[in-house]
Specification:
Layout (H helix, E strand, L loop, with lengths): L9 H20 L1 H17 L5 E7 L5 H9 L2 E8 L4 H5 L8 E5 L11 E7 L8 H10 L1 E12 L5 H4 L13 H8 L3 E8 L2 E5 L2 H10 L12 H15 L6 E5 L1 E8 L1
Parallel strand pairs: 1-2, 1-4, 2-3, 4-5
Antiparallel strand pairs: 5-9, 6-9, 7-8
Helix pairs in contact: 2-3
Amino acid sequence: MTQNFQPLSISQRRVQQNFQRGFRKYNDNAYMQKHIAARLVDLFSQTTNLPHFHSVLEIGCGTGFLTQELVQRLSVDHWSINDLVNESRAHIAPIFKTSAWEFLPGAIETKQLPRKYDLIASASAIQWIADTPTLLKRLSDSLTPGGWLILSSFGPEHFQEIRTFDTKPCPMSYFDNDNWRALLSTDFKPVLIDQGIQVAKFDSVRKLLMHLRNTGVNANAQHQWSRQRLAAFELEYARRFSDQDQKVCLTYAPVYIIAQKL
């Protein structure tokens, strides 16, 4: 099959480069993302009886946290696995014990999808998409009637500590529960929308920044650090966002979405 490659935008290329750089250290640092992927599948299993699926699409597979949960817990005839970073394929290939899967590299917004799906899943990736309503419409068109959409993204409280320092907010799509219900209302029946708060703690601000770098989530960061500015940031962040044990805090605000195509 001929792949349909579209040139990446500047922001997409920046995200791609940051995740490529952090891939070697991603699994050791992305413990929050791993937990979120498992929680998403847990919620889906509580919502449905995990039936057999003919074809499943995963968006933004990364190193395979969600892929592994889905493969272990679902019966699926064929898998389509997407990521912006080509190197993802090498990470997820060992997860599959079947040849009935394909890797779709590139931006999901413009990727030509090869088939219809009865389940589309994505964990901790959808927030990178600039035009969420258009993507949701596209995913609806790619689902079979009654097909499932299961996503995790992040709410407005996500990384709230860091964003208090930004003069130019990062162009990320953070929606709360009501926003998601409105976004889904045209093409989907929201079955479950659940907001969580988890706080990651670090021994220092420098270790927090390394955590962000090693998980690729600073891809849209606006800061250009000088030594002086970095030192000032570290002091102020530690002063404002340390707990009673002098641990530096960072808020993760996952949102879990389970919806069925109308």
